[in-house]
Amino acid sequence: MDDIAQSIIELFELYPPAPATPLKVTSYHEAITITSYMWDDWGGTPVSWQYSPMGLDRGYVKRSMEGESAILEIKAALSSDLISLLASYDLRKCLVVVKETEVSAVHTDPTKVDAVYLGTIFSWSLEKEILSLSCKDNTINYYNMFPPRRYGYFCGHRFKGIICGYSGAGTTCNRTLTACQAYSNASRFGGFKHAARLMRRMALV
Hints:
It is built from three helices and ten strands; from the N terminus they run H-E-E-E-E-E-E-E-H-E-E-E-H. By secondary structure, the protein is mostly beta strands. It has two domains: 3-147, no CATH class; 152-205, no CATH class. Strands 1, 2, 3, 4, 5, 6, 7, 8, 9 and 10 form a ten-stranded mixed beta sheet that branches. The radius of gyration is 17 Å and the shape is globular. The two termini are 30 Å apart.
């Protein structure tokens, strides 16, 4: 497994209809407590939640050519208890939040957690203990609360940082895929490669 992949912890939050408790799971190999900001109060009062390990697989965020929405598909292997819990809900329109931090980060510091995705489920299925979710992003409605820096064409990684992974002789980076290709580092490009060209000037950097 790639060293960079091993250094990243992804956090998934699924908000079923109230008064149900949000489902909080992680791609990490064991339960872990992380302090971060709430999706609707980013930069406000942080919360500390324990995330349970779960077999998770998510695709790349795909933005439509019109730039109107970003689609994310997630698959999760569920326990029988979770299957019973979710069976009583229609998950359509439920909120999904994806966050990311590093294994080596201080997990009590909410500024060490990045917001990756915020969306609602528009389609879902449960087959052979595998939950499949298709989500459409909500960030167009939450720009004042949720920092969607990873939705732009430009890379959001710190140049030569642990996620960037570049350690060559280059001294500057303009955060484009072209620059990553020039540094033979395209596999770690942190922007959205398929963003429509006309939308690039709107990217948040």
